[in-house]
Amino acid sequence: MTHPTHDTQTNDPQVHWYGAEQPTQPQPYPQPQPPLGPPPAASEPPTGGGRGRRRWVDVGVAALVAAVVAGGTTAGVVAATDDNQPVAATSSSSTDAGSSSVKAPVTQPAGQPVDWTKVAKAVEPSVVAISNRSQFSLSEGSGVILDDKGHVLTNNHVVAGASQGGHLTVTLNDGRSYQASIVGTDPSTDLAVIVMKGATNLTPATLGDSDAVQVGAPVMAVGNPLGLAGTVTTGIVSALDRPVTTSTESEGGPAALQGGGTPVVTNAIQTDAAVNPGNSGGALVDATGRVIGIPSSIATLGQSSGGQSGSIGLGFSIPINEAKSIADQLLADGSAEHPFLGISLKDGQITQGAAQRAAVTVVQVQPGSPADAAGLKAGDAIIAVDGESVNSAESLVAQIRERAVGDTVKLTLVRDGKQLDVTAKLTARASQ
């Protein structure tokens, strides 16, 4: 199978990798490879019909100055002392812990501007700052309190390496700090659950429904950007079902030192609320204070476009419905299973009347797979999943990844010039 590469354009968003370390090279899009399930190792980018290469960055923040400038790219400026430890920024949240009686969901007056002060007071006690001191570095991120037992949902790349000699510290909105340990991680979705040891008087977050989110809806991001805990930023949902691929850390340490990490494909919520290194694992909430997403990555500009690596108004969050499904599995047994379709793909085009449109071409169907049972054939061009358009192999992978094992999906495809629908019941991907 051949995969033509993108034309590289100097003004495209670039990956600047934040986490415990930054790789010597930006992580590319993985090419679509069989079978469709958790994406395989990254290699070539998928074809894009002449589009420039898009790159994304995980938004954990590393303390090491060397990590900030590694790989010849410019990351966000992180002040550090001579011993490579972050300069402590004296900050407090916008509310005094325990003093707020506001709880999510917050009722907003009809026809009035959103009262973000109320939302912040309701949400901030449920969002924590996470410090991960490992053998590689000291890094920081954010997390969302799931229950009164001290379980916290965050990104895998925020806590990567902590299970092998690293130390996790979770700091609450009121300044209390607790040691924490890993309950379970899922590198394929870049999600993890940790638990605070001995934490009491907690305020669990109120989770919303990411399937109900609409473009243009007001949102607030809450987290620990650049070590500044209790920071809130506002904006709108600027797009939905945005396929975003990043490469995250493995449990053994940074991708840069492990020969590559696990490629993560997310059907993300895109927002223009400012998200910066350290926001990873925090909360994206709606106007009622319900968590609708977990911020995990941002688009940044390359050096040729000025070297800006902080927020440029393109932040991406894992939808909370997907995150909750994974969190529930991690809480149950420390691991998660993923949906499997069983096809290999490449980007392509189809002709509809006088127009052409992007599609996803089936290269091969795995015998005995859900795709095989559904009657998919090599050469089929898939154009939609459950009525939602797909125009690249990456977007189809993201659509399948968002669903759960046992779900039935409707695939709209074009075969021999005719459009038809087939249904497939997703099974669990076998262990490799």
How is the secondary structure organized here?
Layout: E1 13-14, E2 57-58, E3 61-62, H1 65-69, H2 116-123, E4 127-133, E5 138-145, E6 151-154, H3 156-159, E7 167-171, E8 177-186, E9 191-196, E10 218-223, E11 231-248, H4 255-258, E12 262-271, E13 283-285, E14 291-298, E15 300-301, E16 315-319, H5 320-333, E17 339-340, E18 343-352, E19 355-365, H6 370-374, E20 381-385, E21 388-389, H7 393-402, E22 408-415, E23 418-425, E24 427-428
Antiparallel strand pairs: 1-15, 2-14, 3-5, 4-5, 4-7, 5-6, 6-9, 7-8, 8-9, 10-11, 10-13, 11-12, 12-16, 13-14, 14-16, 17-24, 18-19, 19-20, 20-21, 20-22, 22-23
Low-confidence stretches: 1-99, 249-260
Q: Can you give the helix content as a percent range? A: 10-25%
Radius of gyration: 21 Å
Specify the structural class.
mainly beta
Distance between the termini: 22 Å
Physical arrangement of strands within the biggest beta sheet: 10-11-12-16-14-13
Q: β content, as a range?
A: 25-35%
* Oligomer class: single chain
Given the structure, what is the number of helices?
7
Q: Quick one: how many beta strands?
A: 24
Largest sheet: 6 strands, antiparallel, barrel
Average of the residue pLDDT scores: 75
Q: In one word, what is the shape?
A: globular
Descriptive notes:
There is one protein chain. With 432 residues, the chain is mainly beta. Strand 10 and strand 11 (231-248) form a beta hairpin. The chain is 12% helix and 34% strand. It has helices at 65-69, 116-123, 156-159, 255-258, 320-333, 370-374, 393-402; strands spanning 13-14, 57-58, 61-62, 127-133, 138-145, 151-154, 167-171, 177-186, 191-196, 218-223, 231-248, 262-271, 283-285, 291-298, 300-301, 315-319, 339-340, 343-352, 355-365, 381-385, 388-389, 408-415, 418-425, 427-428.
